[in-house]
Automatic annotation (TrEMBL):
PROSITE patterns: GNAT. SUPFAM superfamilies: Acyl-CoA N-acyltransferases (Nat) (SSF55729). It comes from Nocardia caishijiensis. InterPro entries: Acyl_CoA_acyltransferase, GNAT_dom, Ribosomal_N-acetyltransferase. This is Ribosomal-protein-alanine N-acetyltransferase. The lineage of its organism: Bacteria, Bacillati, Actinomycetota, Actinomycetes, Mycobacteriales. PANTHER family: ACETYLTRANSFERASE, RIBOSOMAL-PROTEIN-SERINE ACETYLTRANSFERASE. Residues 210-240, 297-331 are annotated as: Disordered.
Length: 460
């Protein structure tokens, strides 16, 4: 959708945004620096009661989560992600002082969708500063990166954040049950969305650039992104806040962790074979090499339960090649081998777990479990059947078998399914299997590859 999105390593690493004037203060965003450590730690420890209830749960104590090594790792990961075009991680500066952070993550480059999050010094809260920082970056993402939708998940009890989003024009789209493990427990979170049209309709006061004479010490903007010497990856100095040895150790541990994470995706998983109750000739099983002929035939002829939602793009999650891969699936031998290869590694594989609904030895449908790109700690579910071979009642029973396996054997705590509005058959099957309707995702590109309104269904 956007050349800028897919080639964003340069643009997302731009050094600063702003400064802009907000009341009597100047606000700007810039990448984090190692020298920010002392101020970052001071605020985070002081404002623990303000931040921790809405922050991800960790086995570490709050103090252990705010050491020089943790900050060095955070900076290293942020720099790498910005160079790769995956995220912008910015420090919120108010009048030249570190006051918080804001982050935009590209969660779906093809759909041009980003996720926003932010926190700010409690002493600076209530003045609209965090809203100004979010607006500054939203404006940039919409105009420069052509982002179509920005999503923001917020805990249902985080009233200041909810007021901020409403004030910026975000629309509430869903309430996701037990979506995040935050503050020591899984909590319900609301999902909010902002589009360029929403931002225009909000009629917010314009971003007014600060007078250069009022901005001491701000690095000049350049067309070629650069890092100040103190923020270059691996840099350290006596006044950096983080010793060189700590930075080196953090870089080494991060590198080892990255390699281990990649290898984790390729650990062989045990084959799945689930007997569907009340239908002895029906099983849900792992995709195998012998399925190639039927897999190819399904790619050519399958009709969904609702024919207005064609197959185009349904293999996007499984192959990473976009909607065109789904259209050409029956002709792509390489695609078949990649799909069956990934099936050896189960839910941990890059494309997730693909299970076949086998009815009397016939490939009659699929259940696809994958890491959901939505801003929630959930396993995504995409499912379809051949309506000529599978009745909705049998489909729902088979789905319940998949859910039981996912919870008991795979440790899944939450599942989320996105269904195009109007696909009443799939929606009814999800409801019969125990899913609850959580909201409406407007103009959302779901796992089918279609950019239409989708109902969000969740199960915990």
């Amino acid at each position: 959708m956007s050349r800028t999105i897919t080639e964003a390593p340069t643009a997302l690493s731009s050094p600063t945004f702003g400064p802009v004037r907000h009341g009597d203060s100047l606000v700007r965003l810039r990448p984090p620096r190692l020298s920010d450590f002392d101020r970052w730690r001071e605020i985070r420890l002081r404002d623990r009661a303000w931040i921790e209830p809405h922050w991800g749960t960790s086995p570490l104590s709050w103090e252990q989560r705010h050491t020089p090594r943790i900050w060095a790792r955070e900076c290293l990961v942020a720099w790498a992600d910005m160079r790769a075009g995956r995220r912008f991680v910015g420090v919120i500066e108010v009048d030249g002082r570190f006051a918080g952070q804001v982050e935009y993550t590209i969660i779906d480059a093809e759909a041009a969708t980003a996720e926003a999050s932010a926190w700010i010094d409690a002493g600076a809260a209530g003045r609209g500063l965090i809203g100004r920082a979010l607006l500054l970056l939203c404006d940039h993402m919409f105009r420069v990166h052509r982002v179509a939708r920005v999503l923001a998940p917020v805990s249902i009890d985080n009233d200041p954040a909810l007021r901020c989003l409403r004030g910026l024009g975000f629309r509430h789209e869903a309430t996701m049950a037990r979506a995040y493990d935050a503050g020591g427990a899984r909590k319900d979170h609301t999902l909010w969305a902002l589009t360029p049209a929403d931002l225009a309709a909000a009629q917010l006061s314009p971003l007014v650039p600060a007078d250069p004479a009022d901005v001491p010490g701000v690095e000049p903007r350049t067309s070629t992104p650069t890092y100040p010497p103190s923020t270059a990856p691996g840099a350290g100095s006596a006044n950096s806040g983080v010793p060189r040895a700590v930075v080196a150790l953090a870089a080494l541990r991060w590198s080892v962790w990255s390699v281990r994470e990649k290898l984790r995706h390729y650990r062989p998983a045990a084959p799945v074979a689930l007997t569907v109750r009340a239908s002895p000739n029906t099983v849900v099983r792992t995709l195998t090499r012998t399925d190639r002929a039927q897999w190819t035939q399904v790619g050519r002829t399958r009709a969904t339960a609702t024919s207005s939602f064609p197959r185009s793009g349904q293999e996007r999650l499984g192959t990473g090649e976009g909607s065109s891969a789904g259209q050409d699936r029956s002709k792509s031998r390489a695609q078949w081998y990649r799909t069956v290869w990934h099936s050896r590694f189960g839910l941990r594989s890059p494309s997730g777990l693909r299970l076949v609904l086998d009815v009397n030895g016939t490939y009659a449908g699929e259940f696809h479990l994958y890491d959901s790109p939505l801003p929630c700690q959930a396993t995504g579910l995409y499912t379809w059947v051949d309506p000529l071979r599978v009745e909705p009642e049998l489909w729902a029973v088979a789905l319940r078998s998949v859910i039981e396996h996912a919870v008991a054997e795979l440790g899944v705590q939450r599942m989320a399914a996105e269904v195009p509005v109007g696909d009443t058959v799939t929606a009814a099957v999800l409801a019969a299997a125990g899913f609850a309707h959580e909201g409406l995702l407007t103009a959302h590109r779901g796992p089918s590859g279609l950019c239409v309104d989708h109902d969000l269904w969740g199960l915990t």
